[in-house]
């Protein structure tokens, strides 16, 4: 939600998303940045966010705005900020700068040190090349996010439709980037989140793009409009059928292996052979399904 729109900051509070991010970066014009900081602090302190994770996206570290964004928002609304999102991250040092700055502010205003998390957006070639070091840069880091619009611009990709497949290219032009981010995230036990889809009225288009990153293992995707929320919640949760099957594998594996006195590693479930690796795959799907309330 753009920090410059008091109306949208109000509307966001009641929406069925898991997280909301209040933006001070690209959705806010340069002349509106100072006012947006005030709106964001007020919305965090006075709003009822209904248990949603509350993140604030500050400006990137090549601008003159970042330090004041962090200081004003965390000093002004620290107890109501869950995460600071840093866009266009290019190296681990930028995350370390944010970590140290947050620690100083937390100490200065009497907040628990380390309470505020960090989300990092990977939005250019430099950031992608550095993503392993970025993912390891701070214990505050919770999430690595793909920023497809800036990313496409930064590598001169020949398309204006973010996330959509490109007819001239026979494969998925995002596959390498998504996998690179996913590996770094999983190596450091972080969430991997896909970025925005800009054609906000094209929910089928949103769904198609979301399905690709969900299939790889991404945990979720940004929504830019309330109309995209239902599709996102649906796509990143397992299907009921897969969820039921995962629970069945877990039950069957526990049952048959204990029946064999713990002496059998692989057992049959109908026509399917299940072993310890199947149990681990089933745990992933079951955990996602339980979190989605299936
Ligand atoms: C998001 O910030 C993007 O650039 O896609
Ligand atoms: Mg961006």
TrEMBL record:
Boundaries of every HpcH/HpaI aldolase/citrate lyase domain copy: 2-226
Residues binding Mg(2+), per UniProt: 123, 150
GO molecular function: lyase activity; magnesium ion binding
Entry cofactors: Mg(2+)
BP-aspect Gene Ontology terms: oxaloacetate metabolic process
Ligand binding (substrate): 57, 123
Keywords associated with the record: Lyase, Magnesium, Metal-binding
Domain of life: Bacteria
The protein's name in its UniProt record: CoA ester lyase
Species of provenance: Virgisporangium ochraceum
